[in-house]
Write a sequence for this structure.
């Protein structure tokens, strides 16, 4: 039997297929290494963030990932057994040649380009991390059966969403989400002819102050709603395509609208109807009710999405490869295509991230003329932890005396919006009561914010100053950074020990002097 013609033919076929296996291994290795090199910064971020997770959360993420890997391995094993039963030995040898499916290839390329754009435009590391994880599953689809890969796509998308936003849920996107929610509520209040002013996560009305905390940002409902949609997609076997994307976008829009309506309702109950007890009682039920309504509507819309095509187990050999969504690359071309894909990843890795080439203001060289007398004082521990955790930030804190004016000021020059904040949040967190906040023309060519603190016993003023313009709105400063209009800004925050009026000539002279001196040290 050992010398039978069949055995000899199988040995010859195995020898002929060896170069194909080597070329496939080289091609796959080049793709994987270049993909890992492209996403090197993501590994650093994940390595710094994952240790902050609790043991329970790390165990849950690990179990979920292992379950997905075990499921795909099991399906792959059954597919290989079935393939060996219905294909000849020569067909089995041909299956070792690399195959590229269109959908996974487009997903990998889209995640690669999207990750570069996310790092180039935004300072949220969660987005590149999610795209890296999702793109990695796309790489698996380059060698996995198309139908099997599509079946695991919802679970892989869910895991890609869970990990980055779970490790740093209270930072990153949660912060601008609170700002946008507060500004949306402010705009609606203006339509209702109710004067309101929002700043960061605080909404100020004539009747009081309302803070939009993390649960009111709506980010958790967006995150949970997306995971629920992905879970139902996987359970019901729905196909991820154009219709599914429309349902997903509508789901996000409805969750945003419902959350804004909830925050608006709470603000109206607290500040207009003067029913804080009722607002506190309805805070959680309103959120749950809105989420439930949107989830039911999303579940109904998901029925509009067609189910994924089930691969027939009794299909002929030719039908399993002619779905129109994949093609087999010949042995000689597989390595070339893989090298081109690897070169594309390496090329994207060399796309430079935008940096602020302009130097920061020399705040330590500020000089004051009489009657202003100022001396530097050390930053508090909280101020050091907030401002100086970002590279390239310069913070200067001084105590001043100018005629009847006295107090302290802090100047923070930063190339990133993440090292800035709205000072009223700092004042309230340190125990000072915010009574009123108004927009005032405090400085030449721009508005500032005038704050009344502790029942009118103290006042404060602040603005954000760049080499070309000044604004009182933290969202404007954030947007200018994201769109690369202006990257270098200086936060000027002044706290007066005694009550004053913004129209006082002495106040106006002092603020103009500070504005001018900061402008003079701008590079």
């Amino acid at each position: 039997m050992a010398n039978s013609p069949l055995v000899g033919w199988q040995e010859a076929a195995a020898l002929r297929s060896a170069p194909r296996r080597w070329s496939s291994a080289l091609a796959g290795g080049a793709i994987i290494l270049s993909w890992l090199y492209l996403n090197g910064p993501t590994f650093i971020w994940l390595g710094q963030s994952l240790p902050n997770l609790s043991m329970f959360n790390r165990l849950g993420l690990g179990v979920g990932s292992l379950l997905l890997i075990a499921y795909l391995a099991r399906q792959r094993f059954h597919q290989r057994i079935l393939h060996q039963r219905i294909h000849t030995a020569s067909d089995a040898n041909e299956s070792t040649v690399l195959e590229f499916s269109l959908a996974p290839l487009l997903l990998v390329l889209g995640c690669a380009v999207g990750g570069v754009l996310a790092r180039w435009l935004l300072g949220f590391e969660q987005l590149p991390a999610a795209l890296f994880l999702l793109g990695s599953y796309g790489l698996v689809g380059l060698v996995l059966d198309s139908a099997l890969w599509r079946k695991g796509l919802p679970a892989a998308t869910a895991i890609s969403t869970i990990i980055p936003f779970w490790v740093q849920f209270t930072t990153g996107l949660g912060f601008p989400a609170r700002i946008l929610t507060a500004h949306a509520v402010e705009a609606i209040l203006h339509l209702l002819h109710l004067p309101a002013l929002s700043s960061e996560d605080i909404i100020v009305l004539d009747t009081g102050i309302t803070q939009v905390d993390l649960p009111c940002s709506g980010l958790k409902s967006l995150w949970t709603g997306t995971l629920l949609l992905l879970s139902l997609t996987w359970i019901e076997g729905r196909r991820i395509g154009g219709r599914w994307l429309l349902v997903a976008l509508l789901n996000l829009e409805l969750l945003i609208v419902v959350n804004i309506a909830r925050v608006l309702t709470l603000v109206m109950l607290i500040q207009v109807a003067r029913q804080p007890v009722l607002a506190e009682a309805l805070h959680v039920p309103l959120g749950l009710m809105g989420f439930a309504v949107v989830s039911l509507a999303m579940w109904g819309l998901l029925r509009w999405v067609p189910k994924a095509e089930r691969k027939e187990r009794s299909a002929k050999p030719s039908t399993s490869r002619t779905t129109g969504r994949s093609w087999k690359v010949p042995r000689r071309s597989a390595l070339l295509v893989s090298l081109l894909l690897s070169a594309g990843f390496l090329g994207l890795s060399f796309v430079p991230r935008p940096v602020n080439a302009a130097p920061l203001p020399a705040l330590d060289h500020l000089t004051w003329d009489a009657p202003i007398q100022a001396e530097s004082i050390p930053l508090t521990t909280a101020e050091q932890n907030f401002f100086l955790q970002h590279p390239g930030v310069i913070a200067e804190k001084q105590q001043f005396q100018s005629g009847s004016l006295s107090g302290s000021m802090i100047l923070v020059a930063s190339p990133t919006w993440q090292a800035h904040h709205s000072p009223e949040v700092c004042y309230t967190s340190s125990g000072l009561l915010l009574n009123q906040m108004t927009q005032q023309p405090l400085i030449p060519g721009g508005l500032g914010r005038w704050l009344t603190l502790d029942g009118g016993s103290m006042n404060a003023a602040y603005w954000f100053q760049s080499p070309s313009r000044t604004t009182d709105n933290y969202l404007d400063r954030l947007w200018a950074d994201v769109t690369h209009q202006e990257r270098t800004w200086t936060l000027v925050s002044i706290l007066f020990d005694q009550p004053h009026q913004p129209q006082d000539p002495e106040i106006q002279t002092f603020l103009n002097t500070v504005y001018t001196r900061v402008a003079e040290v701008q590079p």
Residues 363-520 form one domain. The chain has three domains: 5-145+329-349, 174-302, 363-520.
